[in-house]
Amino acid sequence: MRVRVKAFARFREILGGEFSIDLPDGAQMEAVLAVLRERAADEAAAVFDETGILRPHIILMLNGKRANRNDIGSLTLADGDEVALFPPVAGG
What we know:
Blueprint: E1 2-7, H1 10-15, E2 18-22, H2 29-40, E3 59-62, E4 65-66, E5 82-86
Parallel strand pairs: 1-5
Antiparallel strand pairs: 1-2, 3-4, 3-5
């Protein structure tokens, strides 16, 4: 199956913007994060902590809805899903 990934703001530079990932059917969100860890390489610390966990300030979306961090390990993906990463939103 193919999953679309979109990275915004600084993450666009680190991860490569918008791209597709081919995964086995029934793959979970953790499989996408594993690919992102590899793509981030030397700049992974901006996205992941020292144990490889997605940093808490990063907003993770699945098909336009915010993904609950507690569910990352059990979120099963489907062909055509879209995963997006955003930096924290600030304003004034």
